[in-house]
Structures are given as structure tokens and as C-alpha cells.
Amino acid sequence: MSQIAEPSAQEHAEGIKTYLREGKERAIRLGNRGPIRFDESGAIQGDILEAYWRQGFYVFENVIQAEELDELQAGIADMLDRAPIERDAKLDAKGRPAFGQEFARDTYTWIPPLSDPVGGTTRNGGRHPSKMVEPVPPTDAPKEVIYMMFGMCQAMDAGLRLYGHPQLLAIAESINGPDFTPFNDAIFLKQPGLGGSVAWHQDGLTHWDSPNWDEGIHGFNFQVQLYPSTPGNCLWVVPGTHKEGHVDIRAMVDGNEGSECLPNAVPLFCQPGDVTVVNRQTLHCSFANTSPDERVSLTFGFHRRSSVLGATGVLGSGEGDVYDEQRIHERSSVIAVAIDARRQRFPKEKPYCYYPFVGLEDEFRWNEHTRETVIKDYNTQDLGI
User: Fold this and answer.
1) Which of 135, 155, 205, 369 has its CA 20 to 30 A from that of 361?
2) How many other CB atoms are found less than 10 A from the CB of residue 222?
């Protein structure tokens, strides 16, 4: 039997146009987007929290203001300007030593344009069982493009300050409790007409069979959007799947005539400065970006402490490690330093008070010492469940 040829980028863009439009209409009807609102205690307003737990995600509008957005965009531009000229290269496009070689973990990952690097493989615990369509890129496309960048807190000071954003940390507390812990962070790049896909998956791997399983046990991820996120380049989710346990993704795709365009999915379209919060158990993906629109999403997640303490890591740099109090404290100290870095940059803003580090603030001020002892290579201590 002959293999069906993949569509060209143009054919792919044209073929999903109706699906994208209808998905956006479904998303608008859900009613789970708007500005951040807090109650008198400083917690997220109850109707927002209810919508998050009902749908498995929420879109917060106009969170990151123009000045900070400019600094984040400049930081990303600098990371790309100083990136290796290609995979494993030691120099950037200007002949300088490429950025990131001083860190223990790779800063940049590369893939062929419009490809799906993990779908249908055993990578990431085999949680991406169904491969996405891989459109044929334009003939003048580069051999590889940057797919993700890591270590935003050490790669750019604006990224560290974002990690200490008081409103985002207050959301984390409202969802995971005041002793919440970090997960990891990554910067997703979707270059226009070139960006790769992320196959349908649920993030969690550790606690599906736990006697304490519930819809929040694997935590959540923020995505801070630096440019307009459109249905053609953004994250897509299937609402409510965080409540269903470990779903059979392969069967869902096969039951949809093998199409990755699942019928109930919705796009998390956004404006620059919007922030999405997505439950890690919610089924989600992103399609190959055959659109003309660029997407840059700063992604970082948080867990309940009870989900992490005593767990064995299964993802990323934390794979195989048992997460004890010391490991959690060391990784969480990045939050304490980030809060102080933000306080120094935005002195008129009320800093977030992170409960596990109350009384330890003077030990975790942002300075050259903590840059070397706390922030450098912090992502080798990620807490991946």
C-alpha cells in the first residue's frame, strides 16, 4: 500500500482553515477568558477559579504591561541573535562564541521545519502516541530551525523577573496552595511557515494510578504570549479532559478518521501580554505553523508540594531523582530570587510573599552571588512529574 504524501505548507494552511475558524468560535463560547481579578483575600475570584477547574484552562488578558513586554521581546531577540548558527555549532551567525555553552543543559533545541519531533515515539515517557501531519516546507526553508529554548531565568534577566510576577504567583497559590513548588520552563518558538508541531498529549506521567489522584495532581503551566497567538500557531486543548484520567489519545485520533483535528478542541488564541494557564492533565497540542504569524510563548509550570515530595522524577533533567525536601527547597529558591529581582526592577509594585521562604528573604536577594549559586544551571534541578 502506498504511503499518502504529506501536504505542502500551503495545502496544509488551506486545508485547516475552516477547522481553525470553527475552533475559535467554540473557544469564544466557553467564557473562560478575561482580566485577572482577585478577591479581598488576594485569591483569584471564585468564578475564574470555577471556570479553570471546569474547562481545564483559562486565558488571562492584558497581564504583562508594555514596558515589561518590550524587555521580554528584547531578551528573546538577543537569545536568537546569539544562538549557534546551526545545531552543535560553537559560533553564532556573527562569528561570536554562541550563547549557552556556559550552562550544563542545552539552551537550544532544533528540528526540521514543520516537523513533529516526538509524536509516535517513546520520548517524554511515550505520552505523544499519535504523530502529527508534517507539511512539506518551502524549498528555500533552512535544514533546521530552533524549536525550543530553555533556561529563561538564567538566559535573560527579564525572564527571571517574569518568574517573580506577583499576580502569576498569586494564581499559582490559588490553584496549588501557598507552598506550591516549581516544575520547569521552556520557550516555545513557532516561526512563520516553519514552526514545528507538538503532538496531542497530557503532560502528567507520575500520578495517574495514585490513590490520591484528582484533576489537579499534575499541576499546571503558564504560557506568557509575546506576540499575537492565532488559531494557526497557538496551543489547542480539549476542554474538560483533565477530569477524565489518562485518555486513549491514539483511539481518539483513530476514531476521528485518523485526523489530528479533534472535533471538540479549541485554540488558546491571545494578544501580546496575555497569559494562559493550562492544567497539565488537559489534552493539548499545537499544529505545524503554516500560518504567516510568529508565536513566542514563555512557558513555566507549578505543582502542589504534596504531588512532588517523595515522587521520582520522570521528565527532563529530574528524571530518576527522588524529590526530597532539600531538592524542592533548592529548586524553589529560584522563585525567592526572582521575587527580589522583580522588586529591584519594579519598586512601586507590591512583591509576592512566597510562604516557604518567609524569613529567608535576605539569603535570596538578587545579586551576582545568587546569579552564580542559585540561578546558574537551576534547570538541572527541575521537578518533572
Assistant:
1) 155
2) 23
Residues 283-294 have a mean pLDDT of 98
- State the Cα–Cα distance between residues 237 and 200, nearest whole angstrom: 9
Cell output for 110: 532544533
Q: Check pLDDT > 60 for residue 101.
A: yes
**Start-to-end C-alpha separation, the chain:** 41
What element of type H or E holds 370?
A: helix 368-370
Q: What percent of the chain has pLDDT over 90?
A: 95
253 and 259 in contact (C-beta within 8 Å)? Answer: yes
Q: Does residue 358 lie in a domain region?
A: yes
Q: Which residues contact 331 (CB under 8 A, 6 or more apart)?
A: 181, 182, 378, 381, 382, 383
Give the strand order in the sheet containing 220-225: 33-34, 57-60, 275-279, 220-225, 295-303, 181-190, 145-149, 108-111
- Residue with cell string 544562538: 83
Q: What is the CATH number of the domain that holds 344?
A: 2.60.120.620
Tell me if 23 is assigned to some domain. Answer: yes
SS3 236: strand
pLDDT digits (tens, 9 = 90+) for 136-169: 999 999 999 999 999 999 999 999 999 999 999 9
The three-state secondary structure class of 226 is coil
Q: Which of 125, 80, 141, 142 is nearest to 107 (CA)?
A: 80
Q: Which residues pair with 145 in a beta bridge?
A: 111
The average pLDDT across 241-248 equals: 97
